[in-house]
Amino acid sequence: MSLFDLAGRCALITGGNGGIGLGIAKGLAGAGAQVLIAGRDRAKNAAALAELIAGGGEAQAIEVDVTTEGFAEAMLAEAEARLGGIDILVNNAGISIAKRPEELTEADWRSVIDTNLTSVFLASKAAYPGFKARGGGKIINIGSMYSLFGAWYSAAYSASKGGVVQITKSLATAWAEDNIQVNAILPGWIDTAMTARIRARLEGFDKAIAQRTPAGRWGTPDDFAGTAVFLAGHASDFVTGAQIVVDGGYAVQGSV
Ligand code: NDP
After folding, report:
1. Which of 22, 92, 97, 167, when mutated, tests ligand 1's pocket best, judged by the most ligand atoms within 8 Å of its CB?
2. 39 and 17 in contact (C-beta within 8 Å)?
3. 177 partner at 20 to 30 Å CA-CA among 8, 129, 190, 217?
4. Phi, psi for residue 35 in degrees, rounded to 5
């Protein structure tokens, strides 16, 4: 048994068409998995697919909006039709709405919770029968530093990402007997489209984050490939319900 070889395995990655999701897709494809990326934006899907295939990966893309009713069953049915089922589910799709709590609307709140948290439950539930039939599976949920911290601009986002950690633990305990491992990755500050907005808006933010991070830099999507391969392969068969922080030391920085 090879610990990190994913040849013959199939992975579905929500939001796999850019940022951290694409970094993970590249990592899994590089380890031999067939990957199916699921995003809303058709042009981004096509560009990501081209990048994955150019890198030597076996990849396909489907258009999915994880806030649409019935998306999870339809997405898993499409994965079944295209790949014969999946071994690895990466719940990565996410959004952030940065506002003070008193300015956050109910629609903002529901949009963040639906995208970041409810989708994790629905996609995992829809994947479960297939995992069970195949004798096991891996679920990798993407949390955040805001699974741990709060901030004036992150009431909905922190609630959703705290929830991601908690649902990870519950699914892990429920499905361990089915040989399904469920773990979370908590990224630090990563250079993607999501953070580009806040970096452009808040002067000095870019530099402040790099200075506060012991590694001295922002993370990149490629920083997630290794952890994802570990959590997707046999190397992590006795690891479940865990949170792996990938943040260059940001969360453990104690000095000022
Ligand atoms: P991006 O904005 O680059 O990526 C977000 C991804 O989510 C896109 O692929 C997007 O696809 C997809 N997505 C968003 N909404 C939906 C939806 N309704 N249905 C389907 N797909 C959707 O940001 P990141 O790569 O940074 O974010 C990826 C994950 O990492 C998120 O869960 C985020 O919360 C988390 N994270 C990011 C951090 C960072 O510093 N960047 C830090 C901590 C956590 P499309 O464009 O097609 O809609």
Report:
1. 92
2. yes
3. 8
4. -115, 145
Distance 92 CA to ligand 1 centre (A): 6
Dist. CA 1 → ligand 1 center (Å): 33
Of all protein residues, the one whose alpha carbon is nearest to atom 10 of ligand 1 is: 15
> How many helices, marked H, and strands, marked E, lie in the chain?
9, 7
CB-based contacts of 23: which residues, under 8 Å, 6+ apart? 220, 221, 222, 223, 224, 225, 228
Which of 132, 142, 141 minimizes the C-alpha distance to 180? 132
The residue whose CA has the least distance to atom 31 of ligand 1 is: 94
Record the tokens describing residue 166, joined without a space: 């908690």
Residue identifier of the C-alpha nearest atom 3 of ligand 1: 19
- pTM reported for the whole predicted model: 0.98
- The tens digit of pLDDT for each residue in 229-238 reads 999 999 999 9
Q: Does 228 contact ligand 1 (Cβ within 6 A)?
A: no
Gap from CA of 94 to ligand 1 centroid (Å)? 4
CA gap 179, 134 in Å, rounded: 10
pLDDT digits (tens, 9 = 90+) for 205-233: 999 999 999 999 999 999 999 999 999 99
